[in-house]
Amino acid sequence: xxxxxxxxxxxxxxxxxxxxxxxxxxxxxxxxxxxxxxxxxxxxxxxxxxxxxxxxxxxxxxxxxxxxxxxxxxxxxxxxxxxxxxxxxxxxxxxxxxxxxxxxxxxxxxxxxxxxxxxxxxxxxxxxxxxxxxxxxxxxxxxxxxxxxxxxxxxx
Amino acid sequence: xxxxxxxxxxxxxxxxxxxxxxxxxxxxxxxxxxxxxxxxxxxxxxxxxxxxxxxxxxxxxxxxxxxxxxxxxxxxxxxxxxxxxxxxxxxxxxxxxxxxxxxxxxxxxxxxxxxxxxxxxxxxxxxxxxxxxxxxxxxxxxxxxxxxxxxxxxxx
DNA sequence: CACGATAGACAACCTGATTGACTATATGGA
DNA sequence: TCCATATAGTCAATCAGGTTGTCTATCGTG
Lengths: 156, 156
Hints:
The structure is a homodimer of 156-residue chains.
Chain A: H1 9-31, H2 39-49, H3 55-62, H4 66-78, E1 82-87, E2 90-98, H5 100-124, H6 126-139
Chain A binds a DNA duplex (30 and 30 nucleotides) through helix 4 and strand 2.
């Protein structure tokens, strides 16, 4: 009977797989006119689309402080991916909205991710890829957009 | 015929899987007497064991500058995970070595990772888990320790 | 023995996160 | 109606971890 692989390989492979996909996404995004996009920006834009329409909301969705979310929005605004307008019904709030450029980057990202998935399917087989996705769904939280992603690696 | 899942789910699931394992590792490490360990520390300690016995070497192994590696070593030294001695044959070099505490943290990590892997195997089946690992090996770089991990997310 | 390469340290700077404090605006209850 | 409290956004200080550039000490070789 063959022994199990060491447990430490699994997280590393998961991370490497993630990293490979994200790196290829951004290499291709750069080729398609979005050289300034960073991994975090895609997550933030997604979070903004799904109801994170103010700094506080975005912070809640991404699991960071409202100040950090505000800085991210500032960066995205400077890069031309979002714009802010005041909420006429509550002048404290500043509504964040994707610009055409922001929407374009998300559409291209979706297409590129589909292409990358197809390449993995070619490599390991569509059946195996579906199984891999189904298995990961079993061992990860259901809501894929509640990432709490930024800064959890290494920080404090 | 059923349509493919959207491509963007794959990287997110990979990341979430990674994150779940790392978070549980560190929760358990904290319970076992290593509350100060951060994800990066584990990688650095591993890299130090595998031939990264000076700042320059560690930097090369981890894909960061020697200055960044030096800062990491400083942190690990302050936390009591490594110690530095001068190389008697080359007084420029300062040899980094794991302390007993550093070695203990790696042994515990290995055991915890094995336990976590077993839990995944219970959940999705040993066969499926082996298939998942094998498939990921096909689509990721061979050397699992050359991560270039720090700072690639969001940087520039 | 002198010169080029290497190891480590120091400084300045960048990014992205945090907490704390402050201002302005809403909102709900006495 | 008015005041207390909660909320949105911003500013400032701080931290971690990364970068590049510079400097010194030491090594090793032609």
